[in-house]
Amino acid sequence: MCTFGKSIRANNNKLAMRAIIFGSKVQPRDVTIGIDQFSFEVKAGNPFCGVKNIPDGIHVIHFSSSDEETECVRYGYWFEETKGRYLQFDETSGAYSVLKESDDAKYDTMIEMHSHLMVSYPKIEETNWYELTSCITYEQIQTLTGNEPPYVDSSMTTQEESRVLNDKLKNRYDQQSAPHFDYTNIQFKSHDAIRDTHRMEDYTDKSHYLNHVIVARSYKGHINRLLGELQFAFCNALLFGNYGSSLQWHSIVELVTFSTQVSTSLIKRLDSILALQLETLPDEYCATLINQEMWLRCLTVSHMSNKLPRTKRVYDNKFNSTSSDEDSESDHQLPNIDSDEDEDEPTVVSGVLSFPASSGIF
User: Fold this and answer.
1) Could you say which of 19, 71, 152, 295 would form a disulfide bridge with 52 (CB–CB 3.0 to 4.6 Å)?
2) 117-133: per-residue pLDDT in tens?
3) Distance, CA of 189 to CA of 186 (rounded, Å)
4) pLDDT < 50: residue spans in the chain
């Protein structure tokens, strides 16, 4: 079961000096550096050596260049253990990379010498980061990114998007070497989702697909991994503006809410998670990260629409939704199963989403 805080609050007295260290006292160019939901600007030439007093648990450090002459791509690394790791700017790639100092004594000395040039992690009570990541495990992050330390950027595609790119570019896209997310492949019109002998049943109720395909096969029966992937996808959409992650977030929400065979405990946890996510999402992000048509269907005509009171309340407050039941029935019906237009076909990303560092989330 997901546990909010993962015993973090019981260990507040152990914050000590877990830190993310930068290998150089002076950063070579203007950069916006963030950890979890917080970010700050560091000007070129100004002394800066990292973030200290990082509490236990899963975190993400992220960067975006302030150089107007370069394309703004936000990128970063998820991490759980900081011991021995430090960040160094690579002039060739123009990005920060994670290096390892194997000598513990030398690493401790680095922290001691440079701690006065580090910023402190915000107080735990000032953030809802642990609730946002309560179901995510570091092992799952490694699995979904396929690299160590887990790297993410705003332009990373999902494995399915990579396949589509490869097909469209006639094998000129290096699917293997390019970083991509190995998210669970949710295809609502696949043969697994809609069985030939149960077409109408599977079309109106996604329970078989959820329980016997996605959870049983992809998650080996562990429903927490579904919620972990939901949270991981949301965080990558929020922090990196990653399009494929936003799609995955929406797909999982739709999959669960349009299923009838969902446990009471699961839907209560989902309601809490989605309400918190929508509360956390800045208003200026909604136009690019929220598919309102899908959310309205999930909150008005799905099987779980009456079991998501907190989510519905937050959504209505955020979008000032005043849709009547009549509007819901007429405007938000399920798509026609016989339609030639496949709304579930993977979308090829044509651009990079970037968000202002001055957003209220930071």
Assistant:
1) 19
2) 999 998 877 789 999 99
3) 9
4) 4-16, 321-362
